[in-house]
């Protein structure tokens, strides 16, 4: 995979999350940017940037396909998108079966559990 997919994922995420603010009052895009900084490969970084766009914005998986993202990236983003009515255990069971989704989820949990963010939240 080339870095153009990472750059495109970052741009898509920035546009999709534009105007969104987290509970600490910080631009939401800082969360996927931090998650991306925790992972190693280009594919992992692309998924990290995109991991919340389906759940938290108007983008769809079809939009990601139209943007030219690989099947692996789209599949991992889909798995990381918790569906309405899906219990957390079945969600985690799917995540752990997909290495790409699992790596990004662990990075996501790492950032979400960062105690240094608490004073801000």
From TrEMBL:
Gene3D superfamilies the UniProt entry points to: Hypothetical protein af1432 (1.10.3210.10)
Protein name: HD domain-containing protein
Organism: Streptococcus pneumoniae
